[in-house]
Amino acid sequence: MTDVSRTIGVDELRTLFLFERLTDDQLAWLQDRGAVEEVPAGADVYVEGEPATCFFVLLSGTVSMSRRVHGDDVEVTRTGQRGAYGGATQAYLGDRVPQLYPNSLRALSDTSFFALPAADFAEAMRQWFPMAMHLLEGLFFGMRNSQTLVGERQRLLALGSLSAGLTHELNNPAAAAVRATAVLRERVTGMRHKLALIADGRLDGRRLQALVELQEAAVKRAASAPKHSPLEANDAEDQLGEWLDQHDIAGAWDIAPTLVAGGVDAAWLDQIVDAVGPGNLEPAVRWLTYTVDTELLMGEIDDAVTRISTLVAAAKEYSQLDRAPHQTVDVHDLLDATLVMLSGKIPAGVQLRKEYDRGLPRIPAYPAELNQVWTNLIDNALGAMGGQGTLTVRTQRDGDWLVVEIGDTGHGIPPEIRPRIFEPFFTTKPVGEGTGLGLDISYRIVVHKHHGEIRVSSQPGDTRFRVLLPVSEILDGPDLALDVPPAEA
Ligand SMILES: Nc1ncnc2c1ncn2[C@@H]1O[C@H](COP(=O)(O)OP(=O)(O)OP(=O)(O)O)[C@@H](O)[C@H]1O
Ligand SMILES: [Mg+2]
Predict the structure, then answer these.
(1) pLDDT band with cut points at 50, 70 and 90 for residue 469
(2) What pLDDT digit, counting tens, does each position of 395-414 carry?
(3) Torsion angles phi and psi, residue 11, rounded to 5
(4) Which residue, of 174, 203, 229, 428, has the fewest CB within 10 Å?
Protein backbone atom coordinates (compact mmCIF):
# COMPACT_ATOMS: atom_id res chain seq x y z
CA MET A 1 0.00 0.00 0.00
CA THR A 2 2.58 2.55 1.07
CA ASP A 3 6.29 2.59 0.75
CA VAL A 4 8.95 4.45 2.63
CA SER A 5 11.07 6.32 0.19
CA ARG A 6 12.56 9.23 2.02
CA THR A 7 13.35 10.47 5.48
CA ILE A 8 12.25 13.72 7.03
CA GLY A 9 14.46 16.31 8.65
CA VAL A 10 13.93 18.11 11.94
CA ASP A 11 13.75 21.40 10.10
CA GLU A 12 10.98 20.13 7.87
CA LEU A 13 9.03 18.79 10.86
CA ARG A 14 9.31 22.18 12.53
CA THR A 15 7.38 23.78 9.66
CA LEU A 16 4.28 21.70 10.36
CA PHE A 17 1.87 23.67 12.51
CA LEU A 18 1.14 20.71 14.75
CA PHE A 19 4.77 20.56 15.83
CA GLU A 20 5.07 24.26 16.42
CA ARG A 21 7.42 25.17 19.32
CA LEU A 22 8.63 21.65 19.98
CA THR A 23 12.24 21.49 21.18
CA ASP A 24 14.98 20.09 19.01
CA ASP A 25 15.01 16.97 21.19
CA GLN A 26 11.32 16.45 20.78
CA LEU A 27 11.53 16.92 17.01
CA ALA A 28 14.42 14.49 16.87
CA TRP A 29 12.35 11.97 18.82
CA LEU A 30 9.48 12.38 16.32
CA GLN A 31 11.90 12.02 13.45
CA ASP A 32 13.19 8.84 15.02
CA ARG A 33 9.78 7.23 15.68
CA GLY A 34 7.98 8.38 12.56
CA ALA A 35 8.55 7.93 8.85
CA VAL A 36 7.52 9.44 5.57
CA GLU A 37 4.94 7.43 3.69
CA GLU A 38 4.07 7.90 0.05
CA VAL A 39 0.58 6.96 -1.05
CA PRO A 40 -0.25 6.85 -4.77
CA ALA A 41 -3.31 8.60 -6.19
CA GLY A 42 -6.51 6.62 -5.63
CA ALA A 43 -5.21 4.45 -2.78
CA ASP A 44 -6.64 4.31 0.73
CA VAL A 45 -4.46 5.79 3.43
CA TYR A 46 -6.61 4.12 6.10
CA VAL A 47 -10.13 2.75 6.31
CA GLU A 48 -12.88 3.60 8.81
CA GLY A 49 -13.46 0.94 11.44
CA GLU A 50 -10.08 -0.73 11.12
CA PRO A 51 -7.71 -0.72 14.11
CA ALA A 52 -6.22 2.77 14.38
CA THR A 53 -2.49 2.11 14.35
CA CYS A 54 -1.07 5.27 12.86
CA PHE A 55 -1.33 9.06 13.03
CA PHE A 56 -0.86 10.87 9.68
CA VAL A 57 0.23 14.42 8.87
CA LEU A 58 -0.10 15.52 5.25
CA LEU A 59 3.12 16.74 3.67
CA SER A 60 2.02 17.04 0.06
CA GLY A 61 -0.81 16.07 -2.24
CA THR A 62 -4.59 16.14 -1.87
CA VAL A 63 -6.74 13.83 0.24
CA SER A 64 -10.42 13.16 0.80
CA MET A 65 -11.79 12.23 4.21
CA SER A 66 -15.08 10.38 4.28
CA ARG A 67 -17.43 8.72 6.71
CA ARG A 68 -19.67 5.79 6.09
CA VAL A 69 -23.29 6.88 6.45
CA HIS A 70 -26.06 4.41 5.82
CA GLY A 71 -23.86 2.31 3.58
CA ASP A 72 -22.58 5.23 1.53
CA ASP A 73 -19.25 6.99 1.85
CA VAL A 74 -19.93 10.65 2.47
CA GLU A 75 -17.04 13.03 1.93
CA VAL A 76 -16.44 15.10 5.04
CA THR A 77 -13.50 17.15 3.81
CA ARG A 78 -11.17 17.36 0.89
CA THR A 79 -7.92 19.19 1.41
CA GLY A 80 -4.43 19.78 0.09
CA GLN A 81 -3.41 21.80 3.12
CA ARG A 82 0.06 20.88 4.30
CA GLY A 83 -0.08 19.85 7.96
CA ALA A 84 -3.66 18.53 7.84
CA TYR A 85 -3.84 15.44 10.02
CA GLY A 86 -5.97 12.37 10.58
CA GLY A 87 -5.92 8.73 11.62
CA ALA A 88 -5.36 7.64 15.21
CA THR A 89 -6.33 11.06 16.57
CA GLN A 90 -7.77 9.58 19.77
CA ALA A 91 -4.80 7.37 20.58
CA TYR A 92 -4.11 9.42 23.72
CA LEU A 93 -7.45 8.26 25.21
CA GLY A 94 -6.02 4.74 25.36
CA ASP A 95 -8.32 1.80 25.87
CA ARG A 96 -11.10 3.96 27.27
CA VAL A 97 -12.47 4.20 23.74
CA PRO A 98 -12.27 1.63 20.93
CA GLN A 99 -9.15 2.50 18.98
CA LEU A 100 -10.56 2.32 15.46
CA TYR A 101 -10.20 4.77 12.61
CA PRO A 102 -13.22 7.14 12.91
CA ASN A 103 -13.24 7.88 9.16
CA SER A 104 -11.52 6.89 5.94
CA LEU A 105 -8.77 8.79 4.17
CA ARG A 106 -8.01 8.37 0.51
CA ALA A 107 -5.30 9.94 -1.62
CA LEU A 108 -6.71 11.93 -4.53
CA SER A 109 -3.28 12.65 -5.96
CA ASP A 110 0.10 11.15 -5.19
CA THR A 111 0.58 12.16 -1.57
CA SER A 112 3.17 11.96 1.14
CA PHE A 113 2.62 11.87 4.88
CA PHE A 114 4.60 12.00 8.03
CA ALA A 115 3.32 8.85 9.74
CA LEU A 116 3.70 8.22 13.45
CA PRO A 117 2.68 4.95 15.14
CA ALA A 118 -0.37 5.45 17.38
CA ALA A 119 1.44 4.32 20.53
CA ASP A 120 4.23 6.86 19.97
CA PHE A 121 1.75 9.63 19.24
CA ALA A 122 -0.07 8.82 22.49
CA GLU A 123 3.17 8.74 24.45
CA ALA A 124 4.34 12.08 23.05
CA MET A 125 0.98 13.69 23.91
CA ARG A 126 1.02 12.39 27.47
CA GLN A 127 4.64 13.28 28.14
CA TRP A 128 4.84 16.65 26.47
CA PHE A 129 1.39 18.15 26.95
CA PRO A 130 -0.05 16.83 30.21
CA MET A 131 -2.23 19.88 30.77
CA ALA A 132 -3.59 19.88 27.22
CA MET A 133 -4.24 16.15 27.62
CA HIS A 134 -6.39 16.70 30.70
CA LEU A 135 -8.32 19.41 28.92
CA LEU A 136 -8.84 17.24 25.86
CA GLU A 137 -9.97 14.31 27.94
CA GLY A 138 -12.34 16.58 29.80
CA LEU A 139 -13.71 17.82 26.52
CA PHE A 140 -14.13 14.35 25.11
CA PHE A 141 -15.74 12.67 28.10
CA GLY A 142 -17.61 15.84 28.99
CA MET A 143 -19.15 15.91 25.55
CA ARG A 144 -20.09 12.28 25.84
CA ASN A 145 -21.82 12.91 29.16
CA SER A 146 -23.56 15.99 27.95
CA GLN A 147 -24.88 14.11 24.95
CA THR A 148 -26.47 11.60 27.31
CA LEU A 149 -27.78 14.32 29.60
CA VAL A 150 -29.10 16.34 26.69
CA GLY A 151 -31.04 13.31 25.53
CA GLU A 152 -32.57 12.83 28.96
CA ARG A 153 -33.41 16.48 29.33
CA GLN A 154 -35.07 16.55 25.93
CA ARG A 155 -37.15 13.55 26.91
CA LEU A 156 -38.27 15.45 29.99
CA LEU A 157 -39.11 18.51 27.94
CA ALA A 158 -41.07 16.40 25.50
CA LEU A 159 -42.96 14.84 28.40
CA GLY A 160 -43.64 18.30 29.80
CA SER A 161 -45.03 19.55 26.54
CA LEU A 162 -46.97 16.32 26.16
CA SER A 163 -48.66 16.66 29.53
CA ALA A 164 -49.27 20.39 29.01
CA GLY A 165 -50.90 19.72 25.65
CA LEU A 166 -52.88 16.82 26.99
CA THR A 167 -54.12 18.72 30.03
CA HIS A 168 -55.25 21.53 27.80
CA GLU A 169 -56.99 19.18 25.41
CA LEU A 170 -58.66 17.10 28.09
CA ASN A 171 -59.94 20.13 29.90
CA ASN A 172 -62.60 21.08 27.36
CA PRO A 173 -64.40 17.76 27.02
CA ALA A 174 -64.09 17.07 30.73
CA ALA A 175 -65.65 20.44 31.58
CA ALA A 176 -68.37 19.83 28.98
CA ALA A 177 -69.19 16.44 30.48
CA VAL A 178 -69.41 17.91 33.98
CA ARG A 179 -71.65 20.74 32.77
CA ALA A 180 -73.92 18.42 30.81
CA THR A 181 -74.21 16.06 33.76
CA ALA A 182 -75.30 18.90 36.06
CA VAL A 183 -77.97 20.03 33.58
CA LEU A 184 -79.06 16.46 33.03
CA ARG A 185 -79.65 16.04 36.76
CA GLU A 186 -81.86 19.16 36.74
CA ARG A 187 -83.84 17.91 33.77
CA VAL A 188 -84.40 14.49 35.25
CA THR A 189 -85.73 16.13 38.41
CA GLY A 190 -88.03 18.23 36.22
CA MET A 191 -89.25 15.08 34.47
CA ARG A 192 -90.11 13.43 37.77
CA HIS A 193 -92.34 16.40 38.64
CA LYS A 194 -94.00 16.38 35.23
CA LEU A 195 -94.57 12.66 35.54
CA ALA A 196 -96.45 13.30 38.76
CA LEU A 197 -98.66 15.82 36.94
CA ILE A 198 -99.25 13.54 33.98
CA ALA A 199 -99.98 10.57 36.18
CA ASP A 200 -102.63 12.36 38.27
CA GLY A 201 -105.31 10.63 36.27
CA ARG A 202 -106.15 13.34 33.76
CA LEU A 203 -104.77 11.28 30.89
CA ASP A 204 -106.55 8.05 30.19
CA GLY A 205 -104.57 4.92 29.52
CA ARG A 206 -104.92 5.14 25.76
CA ARG A 207 -103.57 8.68 25.61
CA LEU A 208 -100.82 7.87 28.05
CA GLN A 209 -99.86 5.03 25.75
CA ALA A 210 -99.83 7.43 22.78
CA LEU A 211 -97.62 9.86 24.71
CA VAL A 212 -95.12 7.11 25.51
CA GLU A 213 -94.98 6.20 21.84
CA LEU A 214 -94.39 9.84 20.90
CA GLN A 215 -91.64 9.94 23.48
CA GLU A 216 -89.91 6.99 21.82
CA ALA A 217 -90.27 8.73 18.45
CA ALA A 218 -88.81 11.93 19.95
CA VAL A 219 -85.77 10.02 21.20
CA LYS A 220 -85.19 8.63 17.71
CA ARG A 221 -85.58 12.05 16.16
CA ALA A 222 -83.14 13.59 18.60
CA ALA A 223 -80.57 10.94 17.77
CA SER A 224 -80.74 11.61 14.05
CA ALA A 225 -81.51 15.33 14.17
CA PRO A 226 -79.89 17.23 11.30
CA LYS A 227 -77.21 19.79 12.20
CA HIS A 228 -78.64 23.24 11.51
CA SER A 229 -76.63 26.27 10.56
CA PRO A 230 -77.26 29.17 12.98
CA LEU A 231 -79.47 30.82 10.37
CA GLU A 232 -81.55 27.70 9.73
CA ALA A 233 -81.86 27.12 13.45
CA ASN A 234 -83.14 30.66 13.91
CA ASP A 235 -85.83 30.21 11.26
CA ALA A 236 -86.89 26.86 12.65
CA GLU A 237 -87.06 28.28 16.19
CA ASP A 238 -89.23 31.16 14.97
CA GLN A 239 -91.68 28.73 13.37
CA LEU A 240 -91.87 26.49 16.42
CA GLY A 241 -92.13 29.47 18.75
CA GLU A 242 -95.12 30.69 16.81
CA TRP A 243 -96.78 27.28 16.93
CA LEU A 244 -96.24 27.08 20.69
CA ASP A 245 -97.59 30.60 21.17
CA GLN A 246 -100.65 29.80 19.12
CA HIS A 247 -101.29 26.78 21.31
CA ASP A 248 -100.92 28.86 24.47
CA ILE A 249 -97.87 27.10 25.76
CA ALA A 250 -95.96 29.30 28.19
CA GLY A 251 -92.19 29.80 27.76
CA ALA A 252 -92.40 29.07 24.04
CA TRP A 253 -89.09 30.78 23.35
CA ASP A 254 -87.27 28.69 25.96
CA ILE A 255 -88.64 25.43 24.66
CA ALA A 256 -88.24 26.06 20.94
CA PRO A 257 -84.42 25.85 20.72
CA THR A 258 -84.37 22.47 22.48
CA LEU A 259 -87.08 21.05 20.22
CA VAL A 260 -85.31 22.34 17.10
CA ALA A 261 -82.02 20.82 18.22
CA GLY A 262 -83.91 17.56 18.71
CA GLY A 263 -85.22 17.64 15.15
CA VAL A 264 -88.84 18.42 16.13
CA ASP A 265 -90.94 20.57 13.78
CA ALA A 266 -94.45 22.00 13.77
CA ALA A 267 -95.92 19.07 11.79
CA TRP A 268 -94.67 16.67 14.38
CA LEU A 269 -96.11 18.76 17.21
CA ASP A 270 -99.52 18.58 15.49
CA GLN A 271 -99.40 14.84 16.13
CA ILE A 272 -99.26 15.52 19.86
CA VAL A 273 -102.46 17.51 19.74
CA ASP A 274 -104.16 14.57 18.05
CA ALA A 275 -102.73 12.09 20.51
CA VAL A 276 -103.32 13.73 23.89
CA GLY A 277 -106.09 16.21 23.16
CA PRO A 278 -105.86 20.01 23.52
CA GLY A 279 -106.43 20.06 27.28
CA ASN A 280 -103.26 18.14 28.04
CA LEU A 281 -101.11 19.77 25.45
CA GLU A 282 -98.88 21.88 27.64
CA PRO A 283 -97.72 19.16 30.08
CA ALA A 284 -97.29 16.77 27.16
CA VAL A 285 -95.13 19.21 25.18
CA ARG A 286 -93.08 19.97 28.26
CA TRP A 287 -92.68 16.28 28.96
CA LEU A 288 -91.46 15.67 25.42
CA THR A 289 -89.15 18.68 25.64
CA TYR A 290 -87.56 17.17 28.71
CA THR A 291 -87.18 13.91 26.85
CA VAL A 292 -85.46 15.60 23.91
CA ASP A 293 -83.31 17.65 26.25
CA THR A 294 -82.08 14.68 28.25
CA GLU A 295 -81.34 12.83 25.02
CA LEU A 296 -79.28 15.73 23.72
CA LEU A 297 -77.43 16.05 27.02
CA MET A 298 -76.60 12.37 27.04
CA GLY A 299 -75.34 12.78 23.49
CA GLU A 300 -73.10 15.62 24.64
CA ILE A 301 -71.74 13.53 27.48
CA ASP A 302 -71.16 10.69 25.07
CA ASP A 303 -69.23 12.98 22.70
CA ALA A 304 -67.16 14.43 25.52
CA VAL A 305 -66.27 11.05 26.93
CA THR A 306 -65.45 9.70 23.46
CA ARG A 307 -63.18 12.71 22.91
CA ILE A 308 -61.48 11.99 26.23
CA SER A 309 -60.84 8.38 25.35
CA THR A 310 -59.61 9.39 21.88
CA LEU A 311 -57.14 11.72 23.56
CA VAL A 312 -56.01 9.09 25.99
CA ALA A 313 -55.52 6.67 23.11
CA ALA A 314 -53.52 9.32 21.23
CA ALA A 315 -51.43 9.97 24.33
CA LYS A 316 -50.68 6.27 24.54
CA GLU A 317 -49.81 6.11 20.88
CA TYR A 318 -47.67 9.20 21.26
CA SER A 319 -45.75 8.16 24.34
CA GLN A 320 -45.68 4.48 23.36
CA LEU A 321 -45.79 3.67 27.05
CA ASP A 322 -45.89 -0.07 27.64
CA ARG A 323 -45.01 -0.77 24.01
CA ALA A 324 -41.85 -2.27 22.63
CA PRO A 325 -39.27 0.45 21.92
CA HIS A 326 -38.58 -0.90 18.44
CA GLN A 327 -41.45 -1.98 16.21
CA THR A 328 -42.82 -1.94 12.73
CA VAL A 329 -45.04 1.10 12.48
CA ASP A 330 -47.31 3.06 10.19
CA VAL A 331 -45.89 6.58 10.37
CA HIS A 332 -49.37 8.00 9.82
CA ASP A 333 -50.52 6.63 13.17
CA LEU A 334 -47.58 8.37 14.79
CA LEU A 335 -48.16 11.64 12.94
CA ASP A 336 -51.86 11.63 13.80
CA ALA A 337 -51.20 10.92 17.47
CA THR A 338 -48.66 13.73 17.56
CA LEU A 339 -51.05 16.13 15.86
CA VAL A 340 -53.77 15.29 18.36
CA MET A 341 -51.34 15.89 21.20
CA LEU A 342 -50.33 19.23 19.71
CA SER A 343 -53.78 20.31 18.59
CA GLY A 344 -54.08 22.68 21.53
CA LYS A 345 -50.92 24.43 20.38
CA ILE A 346 -52.07 24.99 16.81
CA PRO A 347 -53.52 28.51 16.66
CA ALA A 348 -56.83 29.21 14.94
CA GLY A 349 -55.01 31.16 12.20
CA VAL A 350 -52.94 28.13 11.19
CA GLN A 351 -54.45 25.71 8.72
CA LEU A 352 -53.39 22.10 8.96
CA ARG A 353 -52.99 20.33 5.66
CA LYS A 354 -52.40 16.59 5.69
CA GLU A 355 -51.16 15.03 2.48
CA TYR A 356 -50.65 11.41 3.35
CA ASP A 357 -49.69 8.69 0.95
CA ARG A 358 -51.62 5.94 2.67
CA GLY A 359 -50.05 3.32 0.46
CA LEU A 360 -46.67 3.65 2.19
CA PRO A 361 -45.35 0.51 3.84
CA ARG A 362 -44.91 0.10 7.56
CA ILE A 363 -41.32 0.63 8.60
CA PRO A 364 -39.10 -0.57 11.43
CA ALA A 365 -38.66 2.30 13.87
CA TYR A 366 -38.47 3.61 17.41
CA PRO A 367 -41.95 5.16 17.43
CA ALA A 368 -41.74 7.15 20.68
CA GLU A 369 -38.61 8.83 19.44
CA LEU A 370 -40.00 9.55 16.00
CA ASN A 371 -42.91 11.24 17.77
CA GLN A 372 -40.36 13.49 19.45
CA VAL A 373 -39.01 14.36 16.02
CA TRP A 374 -42.45 15.29 14.65
CA THR A 375 -43.14 17.27 17.82
CA ASN A 376 -39.93 19.25 17.48
CA LEU A 377 -40.42 19.96 13.79
CA ILE A 378 -44.06 20.94 14.17
CA ASP A 379 -43.21 23.07 17.18
CA ASN A 380 -40.56 24.91 15.16
CA ALA A 381 -42.93 25.32 12.22
CA LEU A 382 -45.61 26.82 14.47
CA GLY A 383 -43.00 29.05 16.07
CA ALA A 384 -41.92 30.36 12.67
CA MET A 385 -45.48 31.15 11.57
CA GLY A 386 -46.47 33.17 14.62
CA GLY A 387 -50.15 32.29 14.51
CA GLN A 388 -50.88 32.65 10.78
CA GLY A 389 -50.20 30.30 7.91
CA THR A 390 -50.38 26.73 6.71
CA LEU A 391 -48.78 23.73 8.34
CA THR A 392 -48.32 20.88 5.89
CA VAL A 393 -47.65 17.31 6.94
CA ARG A 394 -46.85 15.21 3.90
CA THR A 395 -45.73 11.63 3.43
CA GLN A 396 -44.35 10.09 0.27
CA ARG A 397 -41.96 7.50 -1.01
CA ASP A 398 -38.63 8.31 -2.59
CA GLY A 399 -36.80 5.18 -3.71
CA ASP A 400 -35.80 3.25 -0.60
CA TRP A 401 -36.79 6.15 1.62
CA LEU A 402 -40.03 6.91 3.30
CA VAL A 403 -40.26 10.69 3.48
CA VAL A 404 -42.13 12.72 6.07
CA GLU A 405 -42.18 16.39 5.27
CA ILE A 406 -43.20 19.13 7.70
CA GLY A 407 -43.72 22.39 5.86
CA ASP A 408 -44.60 25.84 7.08
CA THR A 409 -45.28 29.22 5.53
CA GLY A 410 -43.36 31.14 8.18
CA HIS A 411 -40.47 33.58 8.00
CA GLY A 412 -37.96 30.94 6.90
CA ILE A 413 -34.41 30.26 8.02
CA PRO A 414 -31.96 33.05 7.14
CA PRO A 415 -29.03 31.62 5.11
CA GLU A 416 -26.50 32.88 7.64
CA ILE A 417 -27.93 30.74 10.46
CA ARG A 418 -28.79 27.76 8.27
CA PRO A 419 -25.46 25.93 8.97
CA ARG A 420 -26.00 26.24 12.71
CA ILE A 421 -29.58 25.16 13.31
CA PHE A 422 -28.69 21.54 14.12
CA GLU A 423 -26.10 22.55 16.70
CA PRO A 424 -27.06 21.77 20.26
CA PHE A 425 -28.18 24.88 22.15
CA PHE A 426 -28.40 27.00 19.01
CA THR A 427 -31.59 28.98 19.19
CA THR A 428 -32.91 32.29 17.93
CA LYS A 429 -35.69 32.29 20.48
CA PRO A 430 -35.56 34.75 23.38
CA VAL A 431 -33.70 33.62 26.47
CA GLY A 432 -35.75 31.16 28.47
CA GLU A 433 -38.00 30.16 25.57
CA GLY A 434 -36.03 27.73 23.44
CA THR A 435 -33.39 25.27 24.51
CA GLY A 436 -31.97 24.95 21.00
CA LEU A 437 -32.05 21.19 21.44
CA GLY A 438 -35.05 20.41 19.28
CA LEU A 439 -33.22 19.92 16.00
CA ASP A 440 -30.09 18.47 17.58
CA ILE A 441 -32.07 15.70 19.22
CA SER A 442 -34.19 15.18 16.11
CA TYR A 443 -31.03 14.78 14.07
CA ARG A 444 -29.68 12.19 16.48
CA ILE A 445 -32.91 10.23 16.44
CA VAL A 446 -33.26 10.25 12.67
CA VAL A 447 -29.65 9.93 11.58
CA HIS A 448 -28.07 7.88 14.33
CA LYS A 449 -30.96 5.77 15.54
CA HIS A 450 -32.83 5.24 12.28
CA HIS A 451 -30.01 5.61 9.77
CA GLY A 452 -32.08 8.22 8.01
CA GLU A 453 -31.51 11.79 6.96
CA ILE A 454 -32.98 15.21 7.59
CA ARG A 455 -32.95 17.67 4.73
CA VAL A 456 -33.97 21.29 4.93
CA SER A 457 -34.99 23.77 2.31
CA SER A 458 -36.11 27.21 3.28
CA GLN A 459 -37.12 30.51 1.87
CA PRO A 460 -39.51 33.03 3.37
CA GLY A 461 -43.00 31.57 3.17
CA ASP A 462 -41.84 28.03 2.35
CA THR A 463 -39.72 26.05 4.78
CA ARG A 464 -39.61 22.27 4.59
CA PHE A 465 -37.95 19.76 6.84
CA ARG A 466 -37.82 16.38 5.13
CA VAL A 467 -37.20 13.35 7.30
CA LEU A 468 -36.00 10.39 5.24
CA LEU A 469 -36.35 7.00 6.85
CA PRO A 470 -35.13 3.75 5.34
CA VAL A 471 -38.01 1.51 4.33
CA SER A 472 -36.18 -1.66 5.34
CA GLU A 473 -34.27 -2.64 8.41
CA ILE A 474 -30.66 -1.62 8.82
CA LEU A 475 -28.48 -3.09 11.53
CA ASP A 476 -27.68 -0.74 14.36
CA GLY A 477 -24.71 1.53 13.86
CA PRO A 478 -22.03 2.47 16.37
CA ASP A 479 -22.96 3.44 19.90
CA LEU A 480 -24.32 6.98 19.88
CA ALA A 481 -22.28 8.13 22.83
CA LEU A 482 -19.02 7.20 21.18
CA ASP A 483 -19.85 9.02 18.04
CA VAL A 484 -17.64 12.08 18.39
CA PRO A 485 -17.27 14.55 15.55
CA PRO A 486 -14.65 13.51 13.00
CA ALA A 487 -11.16 14.86 13.56
CA GLU A 488 -10.13 17.58 11.17
CA ALA A 489 -8.15 16.55 8.17
N1 LIG B 1 -39.41 25.89 10.54
C2 LIG B 1 -38.49 26.81 10.87
N3 LIG B 1 -38.55 28.07 10.35
C4 LIG B 1 -37.63 29.01 10.68
N5 LIG B 1 -36.61 28.80 11.52
C6 LIG B 1 -36.48 27.57 12.07
C7 LIG B 1 -37.40 26.52 11.77
N8 LIG B 1 -37.00 25.43 12.45
C9 LIG B 1 -35.90 25.77 13.14
N10 LIG B 1 -35.57 27.06 12.91
C11 LIG B 1 -34.44 27.79 13.50
O12 LIG B 1 -33.55 26.85 14.07
C13 LIG B 1 -33.31 27.17 15.43
C14 LIG B 1 -33.02 25.92 16.21
O15 LIG B 1 -34.17 25.09 16.28
P16 LIG B 1 -34.29 24.07 17.49
O17 LIG B 1 -35.60 23.36 17.36
O18 LIG B 1 -33.07 23.25 17.56
O19 LIG B 1 -34.30 24.98 18.77
P20 LIG B 1 -35.42 26.01 19.24
O21 LIG B 1 -36.69 25.74 18.50
O22 LIG B 1 -34.86 27.38 19.14
O23 LIG B 1 -35.60 25.60 20.75
P24 LIG B 1 -36.58 24.44 21.30
O25 LIG B 1 -36.68 23.43 20.22
O26 LIG B 1 -35.90 23.91 22.50
O27 LIG B 1 -37.85 25.12 21.59
C28 LIG B 1 -34.53 27.93 15.86
O29 LIG B 1 -34.29 28.77 16.97
C30 LIG B 1 -34.88 28.71 14.59
O31 LIG B 1 -34.08 29.86 14.50
MG1 LIG C 1 -37.46 23.76 18.37
Answers:
(1) very high
(2) 999 999 999 999 999 999 99
(3) -65, -35
(4) 229
For 444-452, the CB contacts below 8 A with 24+ separation are 444/151, 444/480, 445/366, 445/369, 445/370, 445/372, 445/373, 446/373, 447/69, 448/477, 448/480, 448/483, 449/366, 449/369, 449/480, 450/365, 450/366, 450/370, 451/70, 451/477, 452/70, 452/401
CA-based nearest residue to 402, from 353, 450, 457, 342: 450
User: Would you state the pLDDT for residue 485?
Assistant: 41
Q: How many angstroms separate the alpha carbon of residue 74 from the centre of ligand 1? A: 26
Q: How far apart are the first and last CA of the chain?
A: 20
Q: Is any atom of ligand 1 closer than 6 Å to the C-beta of 420?
A: no
283, 194 in Cβ contact below 8 A? yes
- Higher-pLDDT residue of 404 and 232 is 404
User: Ligand 1: does its nearest atom lie under 6 Å from the Cβ of 376?
Assistant: yes
Query: Ligand 2 centre and the CA of 410: distance in Å?
Result: 14
Q: What pTM was estimated for this model as a whole?
A: 0.60
Q: How far apart are CA 371 and CA 393, in angstroms?
A: 13
Of 427, 454, 465, the one to substitute when testing ligand 1's pocket (max ligand atoms within 8 A of C-beta) is: 427
Residue 463 Cβ contacting ligand 1 at under 6 Å? yes
Residue 277: pLDDT band (50, 70, 90) is: confident
Distance 216 CA to ligand 1 centre (A): 58
- Beta-carbon contacts of 115 under 8 Å, excluding residues fewer than 6 positions away, are 2, 34, 35, 36, 37, 54, 55, 56, 57, 87
Supply the DSSP string of 335-382, one letter for each residue. Answer: HHHHHHHHGGGS-TTEEEEEE--TTPPPEEE-HHHHHHHHHHHHHHHH
Question: How far is 330 from 335, CA to CA, in rounded Å?
Answer: 9
Question: Which residue type, as a one-letter code, is found at position 417?
Answer: I
